[in-house]
Amino acid sequence: MTGASSTARHAIAAAAARFAFSATPRLDAELLMAHAMGIARDALLLGRLDDRAPAGFAALVERRVAHEPIAYILGTRGFWTIDLAVGPGVLVPRADSEVLIEAAQRHFAGRAPRSVLDLGTGPGTLLLAALDLWPVRGLGVDRSAQALGYARANAAALGADARFVQGDWAAAIAGPFDLVLANPPYIGTAEALPEEVRGHEPGLALFAGADGLDAYRTIAPQLHRLIAPGGVAILEIGATQTDAVSALVAAEDLTPVLVHDYAGLPRALVCT
Predict the structure, then answer these.
(1) Is 149 exposed, middle or buried (0-12, 13-18, 19+ CB in 10 A)?
(2) CB 166: neighbour CB atoms within 10 A?
(3) Does 176 sit behind a cis peptide bond, omega within 30 degrees of 0 on the bond before it?
(4) pLDDT tens-digit readout, 42-98
(5) What is the layout of strands, in order, in the sheet containing 162-166?
(6) What's this model's pTM, rounded to 2 decimal places?
(7) Which residues, at least 6 apart from 49, have a Cβ–Cβ distance to it below 8 Å?
(8) Are 124 and 84 in contact (CB under 8 A)?
(9) 184-188 contacts: CB < 8 A, separation 24 or more?
């Protein structure tokens, strides 16, 4: 019952029943309905559930049934205190990555970094979240021209003082920076992933060799020249990569400190 003759309430229930593959089927259906109606989800839940379901909802449901990420269908994803435009060709921001911004807050403890570098910036996720917290100058680097297009559009929408360059990590970047952030690809090429990730999000932002460590092998030797005195580099890692990435960082005479995510899993290394 997803056609125009059903209510939003019934159409949402029918759609959620088709989203069994999702960890949040009901939420997915509500977000799609609100999007189809051109309203916020809160407005839908507080008074529009008995409205007639718009005809466009059915097409959105079919896209989700094909495992397309909700963020791609909606065209936006909230992260930290900002909303980012996203779509095919960019990594969807994950809430767990917000712990990198929290770790940066703790490091600077009431003072602001003067400059921020984001390696593998994607749609500008970590950089623009940091610049929303501290309105300083920032630089984002990514190999993907498509991702950088989203990043520039997001920076313009947020009024951030951000510059973006296409490049291979920090190979052509001159430091130092007070805050270096990175969420590099860290998935092994043979690892299993949900279809909505493997089938839709860019492999360039997901996979890093057989063991998932190729990006860290490149980034770690670059960190020392990138970090300003008193500064910090914060790297997102996979849940099983603490020892391996810590060893790569320690080999460059930096001290890594582990940060866990909201589920209690290893998520980032704070490197000084």
Answers:
(1) middle
(2) 12
(3) yes
(4) 999 999 999 999 999 999 999 999 999 999 999 999 999 999 999 999 999 999 999
(5) 162-166, 137-142, 115-119, 177-182, 227-236, 266-271, 256-260
(6) 0.93
(7) 7, 8, 9, 12
(8) yes
(9) 184/119, 184/120, 184/208, 184/215, 184/216, 184/219, 184/235, 184/236, 185/120, 185/212, 185/214, 185/215, 186/212, 186/213, 186/215, 186/216, 186/236, 186/237, 186/238, 186/241, 187/212, 187/238, 188/212
Torsion angle in degrees (nearest 10) through CA of 109, 222, 90, 231: 10
Cα gap 115→137, rounded to integer Å: 5
**Placement of tokens 């839908």 in the chain:** 44
Measure the CA–CA gap between 139 and 162, rounded to whole angstroms: 6
pLDDT recorded at residue 5: 56
- The domain limits of the chain are 8-66, 79-271
Residue 242: half-sphere exposure toward Cβ, Cα within 13 Å: 11
For residue 96, report the phi and psi dihedrals to the nearest 5 degrees: -60, -25
- Bridge partners of 207, per DSSP, are 187
Architecture of the 79-271 domain: 3-Layer(aba) Sandwich (3.40)
